[in-house]
Amino acid sequence: SRVMAVSGLAAVALVAPLYALAAFEPTAHLIADERVAELSASQVAFQALVRIPLGTALFEEFAFRGVLFGVLSRRGDLFGAVASSVSFGLWHIRPTLEVIDANAPDAQASLVGFLVLSAVVVTGVVGLGLCWLRTKGGGILAPTVLHAGVNSLSLVASAIAHTRLA
């Protein structure tokens, strides 16, 4: 469908700047996530093609844009979108702490707090966009395509960045 195509194209457009950063040694360190530094090409492929789309994106879209939005939108789509998106933002506290621990383990508490708060706000706003996409696409498939595309393509960009730094 058109919404699916737009979701896929949006994922590519959103992640394209990461590939520009990954392509050059002076900027590659900006996206070279240490959690992928030691992954082989086949492990990166598995993560990008199986684990992220099915284990992360599909699960989160089912939970947040499927069940939670569906239940909460009984009080109105806006209420459902805001409440499920706030929950989605809060859900990303632990992953954000893991990224910080892997990439900046000596970060000061104030920086960690700022980064966590930023991640909650950004993922909350992204959640609103994914809710909008769900309402336009009639289900969770289009948001899942966008979510999986952004996450998987970001992982690959990080792996490419590590090859520039090696």
Properties at a glance:
166 residues, mainly alpha, 83% helix
Task: Write a brief structural summary.
This protein has helices at residues 2-22, 25-28, 41-72, 77-91, 93-103, 109-137, 141-165.
Globally, the shape reads globular
Mean pLDDT: 95
Largest sheet: none
Q: Count of helical segments?
A: 7
Q: Ranges with pLDDT <50 over ≥5 residues?
A: none
User: Helicity range of the residues?
Assistant: over 70%
What order do the SSEs take from the amino end to the carboxyl end, as H and E? Answer: HHHHHHH
Give me the count of strands. 0
Rg measurement, Å: 17 Å
Q: Report how far the terminal alpha carbons are from each other.
A: 41 Å
